[in-house]
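Lab meeting prep.
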Amino acid sequence: MIRSESPFLVGIDLGTTNSAVAFVDTRRGGRVQMFRVPQLTAPGLVEPYPVLPSFLFFPDAHELESGALSTPWAPRPDAIVGVLARERGAAAPARHVASAKSWLAHPAVDRRAAILPWGETPGPKISPVDASARYLSHIRDSWNTAVASSDTACRLERQTIVLTVPASFDEAARELTLRAASDAGLTRVTLLEEPQAAFYAWIERHPDWRDNIIRERVNSALRWGREPVSLSLRKAVKGILALKPFCEALFLIASTLERLAPDCQALDRIYQVLLGVHIRRGYREGARQYDRGASESQLLTAQPRQT
């Protein structure tokens, strides 16, 4: 279990297209809540929004001088993040940074170099690490303005934070993610793989999951040689479930259903199968996580279809 001595336990899904923040107020019980991220949604208008679009935009000098892009935490920003950054960037791609998370995992480029926006374009450049740090800095500053204005103990940099990363991230990408968090002033960070976060979200939505995991059994008196057919079938099924491509295919199907039909019964069935596979295979990290109890499993309830 992640033990938190901070007022909040915060989960951040730093997504390729959208980022989301969930939190638990440890002083008032364990209910998970979503943090609506304040951001520019139009010139001169700061509004809380369910997610933070993971886009960075470098405005022209005249836009900065007008003050229309100022926020309570950045009166004269050199770049903006979020809804307005996404909209402005669509019209000016040379000053628009997108998909920084994908570049962070790209082993064929120098991820610390100022390569974004990609291509031979004029204007400012930034590295994938710095872009990720900008997104996290925006989350930090908007949180501190909305939550910690009257209590410095509630500042985001003083909270226990869980940051999700794709299971496909190699060690270099994970280290660079931690570097981005550190550059944003967030040092109390634990990385959590997205598939595990999805399992925890499912468990949080199904508190009786232990009683409802379906165990299909084949009961047959037929025998093949010395071994009952039922035992042979169970061995074959276990072998199929142990195949990595099979599990990856189920994750892809589940991700699609989350977007198209989040309440369908088939989605719950797939999660039940994946959860059983996850436990049976006894992943070292997975086994430790499941032993840690409920408080961490309640952390991330952000809907995958939004990120």
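Slide two material, second protein:
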Amino acid sequence: MANEGEPSSYLVPGSLVNDPEGSVSIIDMRRGPAFLTQDDVRTATFNDSILKTNRESIRIFGPGATLAQDLEPEYIDISQDSKTAWVTLQENNAMAILDIEKAKFTRLVGLEFKDHYLPGNGLDASDQDLAVDNGALKDGINIKNWPVFGMYQPDGIASYQVGGQTYLVMANEGDSRSDWPGFVEDLRVNSAVYSLDPGVFPDFATLDSNANLGRLTVTKASGNTDGDILRSWHDRCYLWFSRKGGKTNVPCNINLDGFVYLQRSDRRQNFFCLCSEFLGGDRNEHFAIKRITARTSSAAATGGYARRRGWNGEIFS
């Protein structure tokens, strides 16, 4: 059971009352629910001694929060031998690996970031650049590379095996912390309290325009790598929900502890302007994996239901 431990407020930084610790409980149901006692419940907690992979992409940023308070378990998937559980930590852009028998976390895995400046990783960063005709479509779509980084931030997770190899599939929904009093992390690039570091972005004035990055919603909690707090100069821009179109692209492959983590997403083409208004469009929270003849497919679900229109999954051979 994922005990997310979301905060009710950040008005008292570090308060366990306002920001409980995240954890995962393992409940022994062999005697049946009518006979459950507290002795049947073991709870795995987080601490700073847990091994970390890709540490730099694990986001710990709640005001005054400890590691245990900041990590918020979302979905859980269990290995076929029932020995290992994989737990998504959405806001933290990470995943935890749990030893079920010992009820202990063995590793935290940062899911890295997607560089939208690399060829093939372009996006439409504005909903106010409609001068672009895009050929016969004339729909204002303007896919290009921008100096920003996407956070995967998966919600749902599932696994399957092919040829003795376990594959993890995650729904990269993306989510910000903006619901709790005392802290709101999302704002627009051209906000008065967010600035691009002119030493890193010499064309910052151009990037700030509404037709470029100005209306892109990013996080103020990441990217100020040199600690320039007074001027709020950010050396990197981080945005939510790094979806990637295409049938065969795998933007991130991480081999850890005998499994492969695949970050793929749907082939639909309705995500072109999703970043300009924060997440926009559909946010895939979870999905179902089914075997079709010799292939395994994953169908994404949005807001708790599976869409019937268009393509919402990716086929894995």
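Talking points for slide two:
The first strand starts at residue 2 and ends at 3.
Residues 243-282, 299-317 have pLDDT under 50 and may be disordered.
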